[in-house]
Each structure stands twice: as structure tokens, then as C-alpha cells.
Amino acid sequence: MPGHNFRVISAPEAVRCEFEPGQVTYTVTDLGARGGCPGGTAVAYDINNNGDVAGVTCSIDGRPHAFLWTTSASLQDLGALGSGVSYGRGINDSRHVVGWFESQSGNRAFLWTPTDGMRDLGTLAQVGGDVIAVSSAAYAINNLGEVVGESSHLLAPNPSGISGGSSGFVWSASNGMRALPLWRAFAINSAGDAAGTALTLTSPLQFEGPAVSLGGIPPA
User: Fold this and answer.
1) Phi, psi for 146 (deg, rounded to 5)
2) How do beta strands 147-155 and 131-141 pair?
3) Burial of 120 (0-12, 13-18, 19+ CB in 10 A)
């Protein structure tokens, strides 16, 4: 990129790219990786305003684990619930990390905090049809502790031919998980505005709280 200088790291490890004020240069920091994966692989997905990073690396036994990286503590394995596999995707300025872990019945969204560790956020309640599997995943968290992601379900074979559905969600400690009029919610700001992908739902959902309409896309 013209006018920008980068130091390229070829190893498949998570890195942090820091802008240096007053200069059009960046400093790339190798965040390291756990030794359980071949080649010491790690992937960074999000960074907060303090420079803390969330992502996924490998545990000692080689299974993917969510991580938190800070300048003071370096790479911290956040562990996992369920089957022992977890993925970190979002982080706020309080070092609260969100993502998902694998369980026998499907993925589950989690919230990890320094004081309480990893917490299962559950899934949206489903209505209609014979639900045989449910899953959820968290993608982002704002500085108010509000989490967004997606919750989906699979139905047993039925005459309607509907196989399941998915909905974006917003979760908070006070209101729990509530459905959003989105297929998946990928980001949320400190004002509570969520962004994601909108699709028509293929089966009904039971809203755990009021859904907030974000409006539609105007015609061209």
C-alpha cells in the first residue's frame, strides 16, 4: 500500500497491527500461540480500545480454545465448556470476551469475564415443529456488556418441508437473550445499535423480549 510500511510475519500466528501517530507506519506484534496445534497456529478476531485481543489458538492437547491477549499477561487460554472446544470472536474494553463452544447438542454462545470465567448464554426459545437441535454463537460485545450473535434450530422431517431457522440475538445480563429481526447479528455499538444480515425467517421464533426493527433496505 503506497505511503504505508508494514513488517510482514509469515508464521501462522495471531498478530496485532498498531498505528504509530505522526508516522505513516505500523508496528506488527506477534501475539504467539499455544503449542498444541501444528505450526503453533492462532487467529486474532477482535481488538478493544486498550489493545487487548481476542481470538482462537490451541490447547495443549491440540483442540481449539478461545484466547485473550494483553500486554501485561500475553496469551491467556480461556478454556472451554462442553466438548472442550471454544472460539473467541469479540472483546470489549472490560476484557469481556464472547464467542462459542461446542457441546453434544450443538454450539453454544459464551461470555467470558476475568471474574466469572466462561458462561453459557443459551439459545433462543423455539416454537413450532419438532426441534431436534439448537445452537448459538456470539460475535460481538459492547462496553455495556450487551452481546450479539445468532441462534438457530433444526427441525425433524415434517410435511411442510421446513428444516429449521435462524435469528440474530441480543443478550444482556438484565434481559437475557432476545431475538432481533436479523438472520445474524455481527456487531453492536455502545448505543445498542446492532448490524448484521437480514433474511426472511423460515420458522417462527418466540421472542424473549421486544424485537427492535432496524428498518428495511430502500428500493433502488
Assistant:
1) -85, 130
2) antiparallel
3) middle
What the block records as the C-alpha cell of 152 is: 438457530
Which bin fits 104, alpha (ψ -120 to 50), beta or left (φ > 0)? alpha
What is the spatial distance between Cα 170 and Cα 136, in angstroms, rounded to a whole number? 12
CB 179 within 8 A of CB 203: no
What whole-number distance in Å separates Cα of residue 115 and Cα of residue 95?
A: 10
d(CA 120, CA 110): 5
Question: Where do we find the cell 439448537?
Answer: 134
Exposed, middle or buried, 145 (CB in 10 Å: 0-12/13-18/19+)? middle
d(CA 51, CA 64): 23
Q: Which of 36-50, 72-86, 133-147 has the lowest mean pLDDT?
A: 36-50
How far is it, in rounded angstroms, from Cα 12 to Cα 16? 13
Which residues lie across from 16 on neighbouring strands? 29
User: What does the alpha-carbon distance between residue 35 and residue 209 come to, in Å, rounded to a whole number?
Assistant: 43
pLDDT at 7 over 80: no
The pTM (predicted TM-score) of the whole model is 0.77
Query: Which cell is 157 given?
Result: 422431517
Tell me which residue of 118, 117, 135, 137 sits closest to 126, measured CA to CA: 135
Residue at grid coordinates 490451541: 58
Name the one residue in this structure whose C-alpha cell is 466438548.
Answer: 83
